[in-house]
Amino acid sequence: MTILVSGGAGYIGSHTSKALIKQGFQTIILDNFSSGKRELIPKGTYKVIEKDLANKNSIIQTFKEHSIRAVFHFASLIQVGESYNHPHKYYSANLINSLNLLEAMLRTDVKYFIFSSSAAVYGIPKQIPIRESHQLNPVNPYGKTKQMVETFLQDYNRAYGLKFVSLRYFNAAGADPDTELGEMHDPETHLIPNILLSLLHKNRNLEIYGTDFPTKDGTAIRDYIHVTDLAEAHVLALKYLIKSNKNELINLGTNKGYSIREILKKTEIITGKKVSFKEKPRRKGDVAVLVASREKAQNLLGWKLKYSDIDTIIQTAWAWHKKR
Predict the structure, then answer these.
(1) What percent of the chain has pLDDT over 90?
(2) Average pLDDT, integer, range 35-61
(3) Exposure letters 42-73 (e unless 16+ CB within 10 A, then b)
(4) Does residue 180 fall inside a structural domain?
């Protein structure tokens, strides 16, 4: 079975591509390499196509040239702060490009779609842990784009028979246990890699945003999930979709949260190094606590966590960054 992975040279896309390849899928990575990295293309990838989803006709041609059975859609802009300052950029990249991809699928009768969504669709949570039935109220343009694409998918299912699973991530972290793949954002905005990079590069300053949240130590609490477990959930979602033909919205998290200060302490223990940082005001749109219920993913997909204890997350990320 041939699978197209848009944004497959990115952090989560590359790990998912590796998981697909290990399961015997013929994997085509489509990426414009604006943020994706060629170093993150896993061994065994069937084909790499350098194209931009903004070029609709070219994308349609790609689908006509390959017998694609399903699509994993990771390609999007992901920085919450930037989405406030440049909403047009986010609506163009995350909405219009998604519509172009969906049109290519319609033109070539590709029915299965796995979407990379986000916990940002929930906004400020009213209950913790967050269940999929929680109301959607995104508080930033990034989160709004994810919610809108989910709306597209529901309409495309009703009108065209498209089948989809939308996976709402919490905080992806860690690195491939084989150290083949890891996290390489530019700029890097995620907490754990920024902590580790500050330890490896003396001229790199670490900044912590928000120390006055209504939490036990004043810093934000997040649900960290290992990227390899996240990738496995995508493969399970595809298998479920093909078997059941049922659309689903599913959280991917661990039911457990850690504060920023707890992550700092854990990192110091694992690396044996003192972490220095500067405290900064909260960023616009940041919420105090984001923790997922993972019941649905467990029960529906049979998803089991293998690497998502916080020690393994930090250890694999540290091994990856030291290797680089």
Answers:
(1) 93
(2) 97
(3) beebeebbeebbeebeebbebbeebebbbbbb
(4) no
Judge if the upstream peptide bond of residue 187 is cis by omega within 30 degrees of 0.
yes
> What is the residue type of 21?
I
The count of domains in the chain is 2
SS3 215: coil
Do residues 73 and 209 share a domain?
no
Same domain, 287 and 243: no
pTM, two decimal places: 0.96
Q: Are residues 35 and 52 in the same domain?
A: yes
102-160: pLDDT as tens digits: 999 999 999 999 999 999 999 999 999 999 999 999 999 999 999 999 999 999 999 99
Alpha carbon 324 to its chain centroid, in Å, reads: 22
Mean pLDDT for 253-262 is: 97
Full domain range(s) for residue 262: 191-222+255-323
> pLDDT for 168-225, tens place per residue?
999 999 999 999 999 998 888 899 999 999 999 977 889 999 999 999 999 999 999 9
| 164 and 23 in a common domain | yes
Q: Which of 142, 224, 240, 258 is catalytic?
A: 142
Q: Residues 150, 271: one domain?
A: no
User: Is there a domain that residue 178 lies in?
Assistant: no
Q: Is 142 a catalytic residue?
A: yes
- Domain assignment present for 179: no
